[in-house]
Amino acid sequence: MAFTEAQYIEEMIRTRRQIHQRPEEGWTEFETNWLVVERLREIGYTTILQGTKVINPDAVMGRDPKLVEAAIKRALEHGVPQEFIDATEGYTGTVAVLETGRPGPVTAFRCDMDCVLVTESDSPDHVPTACGFASKRPGFMHACGHDSHTSVGLEVARWLFDHKDELKGTFKLIFQPAEEGVRGAAAIAASGVVDDVNYLVGGHVGTSAKLGQVGLSEGGFLASTKIDLHFHGRPSHAGSDPEKGRSALMAACAAAMMMQGISRSGEGVTRISIGRLNAGEGRNVTPVHADMQLEVRGQTTEVNQYMVKSVQNIIEGVRHAYEVEIDFVKAGEAATLQCCPELIGIVEAAAKEVPGVESTFRTSKPSGSEDCTLLVNRVIEHGGQGAFFLFGCNHHGHHRADFEIQDETSMPVGFGVFRNVAKKLNGI
Fold first, then answer.
1. Which pairing describes strands 106-112 and 94-99: parallel, antiparallel, or unpaired?
2. Strand order in the sheet with 385-391
3. What gap in Å lies between CA 111 and CA 108, rounded to an integer?
4. In what side-by-side order are the strands of the sheet with 223-232?
5. Is residue 93 over pLDDT 90?
6. Using an 8 Å Cβ cutoff, are 126 and 400 in contact?
7. What are phi and psi of 294, to 5 degrees?
8. To the nearest 5 percent, what fractions of the chain are helix, strand and coil?
């Protein structure tokens, strides 16, 4: 028997608060992914794709095998079955497929699952703390709302299954790992699982949308490349033989200072952020190793590539000047969002019919990055359309210890938009 509206919402809230307590960073979401698969099976889904069926290992970025190994051990300790772990082949990410048995378009909805490396606020004014569902893992928090995305996606999956006799075509529910650092979508796109998709829609809670608002993205996401640099120098005694050493630390510092001075582009907005630098072995040893994490962004793919090329030029110069070796590793990637006016119009019309939506707006202001853009681009390359929307909440800022959403009122809006889009695109 199909759920009532109240039951979908109640289940959404319960699931979100359960996931919120066990946050997992990108590529380690085994507990969350098991919850997703278990719930899909309970609903009645029989086609649930995992492992290399949805992840192309050759396109994986920013995945640390040691973190994955530790996450698998932790998941097993928390009751995740070995059979499930084996089915993942070490890669989180799931795509559920629903065939209605009637000809129609292939429509995909994408939700992400990973958390942010933030310790959650313990203030009694912080709702998750006050209500007893704050993160139980210090240093990890759903401070960007992906717990709500997963929970909304699961209830959308339930609604589709409950109402499949009223629908046509095929649905694909994509539960994506590693959106933070824009690391996960590229591998899903490269798997080919969305190549037959006619329409792909993704959503995000909050950002510039306040409670009661739905925003339609006409662009705005910056193309981005996340870069890890590993500097390798030569050790020496800092007192007796300084000339024999080659300092990885000094090379990294020089590179960092020069990168901050990269000329801005007249072709569009640019960004660069050097977020982390670890170096050295001890006070009296010429530093042999240095590791840097940075990112560049651009208003267009071309502008972003200009930033990447500039970083590479600086690295090459530093390599020669400081006589060190430097490994360049691309750890994540996102594109700008291509605009599909027809689908945006459909999503906007769907949003206006959702109870609780007071207004809609369109946005193209350059801000953050989102790797759903890679899935959208893949769908467009194969003749389909893609769109992205925001369902509002009142928050203190994403990636903060006090990030909150009003799950009783914000999540039903996201659920309603996806559901109404399904009706408009695949309704009989």
1. unpaired
2. 47-49, 94-99, 170-176, 106-112, 199-205, 385-391, 213-217, 359-363
3. 10
4. 270-279, 289-298, 223-232, 325-334
5. yes
6. no
7. -145, 170
8. 40, 20, 40
Which tokens in the block code for residue 140? 């990890």
- The total number of residues shown for the chain amounts to 428
Q: CA 186 to CA 303: how far, in whole Å? A: 20
Structure tokens at 148: 């709500």
* Cβ count within 10 A of residue 214: 26
> Cα–Cα distance between 256 and 251 in angstroms, integer?
9
Confidence of residue 366 (pLDDT cuts 50, 70, 90): confident
Calpha distance 244→235 (Å, rounded): 8
Burial class (CB in 10 A: 0-12, 13-18, 19+), 60: middle
Cβ atoms of 356 and 210 closer than 8 Å: no
CA pair distance 91, 88, nearest whole angstrom: 5
Q: Residue 206 has which token pair?
A: 């909050």
Check residue 365 and give its pLDDT. 81
Separation of alpha carbons 395 and 402, rounded Å: 8
Lookup: tokens for 245: 């050493």
Identify the CA nearest to 227 among candidates 331, 312, 333: 331
Half-sphere exposure of 258 (CA within 13 A, CB side): 15
CA 194 to chain centre: 17
pTM: 0.95
Alpha helices in 62-165 (DSSP H): 65-77, 82-88, 127-130, 146-162
**Mean pLDDT of all residues in 263-275:** 94
Q: Distance between CA atoms of 308 and 306, rounded to whole angstroms? A: 6
State the Cα–Cα distance between residues 225 and 221, nearest whole angstrom.
Answer: 13
- At residue 103, φ and ψ (nearest 5 deg) are -60, 140
User: Distance between CA 110 and CA 174 in Å, rounded?
Assistant: 5
Pair of tokens at residue 275: 């977020």
